[in-house]
Design a protein that fits this description.
With 356 residues, the protein is an alpha/beta fold. 41% of the residues lie in helices and 16% in strands. A 7-stranded parallel sheet has the order 3-2-1-4-5-6-7, sandwiched between helices. A 6-stranded parallel sheet has the order 10-9-8-11-12-13, with helices on both faces.
Length: 356
């Protein structure tokens, strides 16, 4: 059976899809899978306890001023030497990279050594590392036709974003914070919380408190939970949480989700087939979160409100909760766009191309 080397890093958005594809390959009988990433990094924390792990060095790539990239050739050369030695030691038959600057040295090293490379791009705007590495890619898996425009013609296949295996619907009990018979809203800003979302919800808290028929779970971020709870006080129909481990139960039982528009969060919302209101993180590289959100809005699965726009967030929530047919058509559009089995599909394509 073939030997695989995965490389991913920087953020969970790059790491989770890699792990999802690796798990699918494992289910299909691939036994020899190694990951590469930096030392003391997020990818090491999320990956190293489950998979063999090799250390590489990596150099951030700047989209902006030329001066910032002046030292790049020198640093990249060092990173490439290290990457080549890892590739020689692991001796993979196939390399799979899911973007982030961490992946580039391995992609360049493997490509120059004639090893087949597969790329997966999560966002509607392609990242620099994947664009640079695409010349060596056998196939590039993208999530929309928009993203395919950034890559060589004929190399792309459109799939959903790979997500961790979702529990079956019956396995997820309705969270206690969602009162029986109530409409349910789940607000999620990631583990850090999302300032833009938190501010808009806090401004609307009196109106929200008046809706006894609506239960809200608001994940504000661990570092914000005390301050926000102190300011807002006790609101019976709003549960303020720092972080939630069983996030899938809240997603499954929510009538509506309010979220940032990072690729991984979106993939999960769509995989569950949920209507959403998306507030893209305004400082994301190349504004990719807004591009992601607009793709979902365009098919009718979400509404988009920018942090900088006047606060109509809760008004939008109320108008959607009062319109069952609109909610169900948004849910149907989300389900159509989401691909809960994207990781399996991608794994199948790679295996058929490599074993075919």
């Amino acid at each position: 059976m073939k030997k695989f080397l995965f490389v991913c890093g920087g953020t969970g958005g790059h790491i989770f899809p890699a792990v999802a594809i690796a798990n699918s390959l494992k289910k299909m009988g691939v036994e020899n899978i190694t990951f590469a990433g930096r030392k003391d990094s997020m990818e090491e924390r999320l990956v190293a306890h489950d998979w063999p792990y090799e250390y590489i060095s990596a150099v951030p790539l700047h989209r902006g001023p030329f001066l910032k990239n002046l030292a790049l050739p020198f640093n990249l050369t060092k990173a490439l030497v290290r990457a080549k030695s890892v590739v020689k030691r692991v001796n993979p038959d196939v390399v799979v990279a899911t973007g982030g600057y961490v992946s580039l040295p391995i992609v360049l090293a493997a490509g120059s050594m004639g090893i087949p490379v597969y790329l997966q791009e999560q966002n509607a705007v392609a990242g620099v590392a994947n664009k640079v590495g695409s010349r060596y890619a056998k196939t590039i898996f993208v999530t929309s036709d928009d993203a395919a425009k950034f890559f060589p013609h004929g190399k792309c296949m459109v799939f959903g974003n790979p997500v961790r295996e979702l529990p079956t619907e019956t396995a997820l009990e309705r969270p206690a914070e969602f009162a029986p018979g109530n409409k349910t809203v789940f607000i999620v800003g990631g583990s850090q919380g999302a300032v833009g979302i938190n501010n808009k919800i806090e401004e609307s808290i009196k109106t929200i408190a008046a809706r006894k028929d609506v239960s809200v779970v608001w994940q504000v971020g661990i570092k914000n939970v005390d301050a926000i709870s102190a300011r807002v006080g006790d609101v019976p129909n709003v549960a303020i949480r720092g972080f939630l481990n069983n996030i899938y139960a809240y997603m499954q039982h929510a009538d509506l989700i309010i979220s940032r528009a990072g690729a991984s969060a979106l993939a999960e919302i769509l995989a569950f087939g949920k209507p959403s209101i998306l507030l893209p993180f305004p400082h994301a590289t190349a504004n990719h979160q807004e591009h992601n959100a607009r793709v979902v809005e365009h098919v009718g699965a979400a509404l988009v409100e920018l942090d900088a726009e006047e606060n109509h967030l809760w008004e939008k929530v109320e108008s959607l909760l009062g319109d069952e047919s609109r909610l169900s058509s948004m849910a149907a559009a989300a389900k159509k766009l989401g691909m809960p089995d994207a990781a399996d599909q991608i794994a199948k394509v790679i295996l058929s191309k490599e074993n075919g």
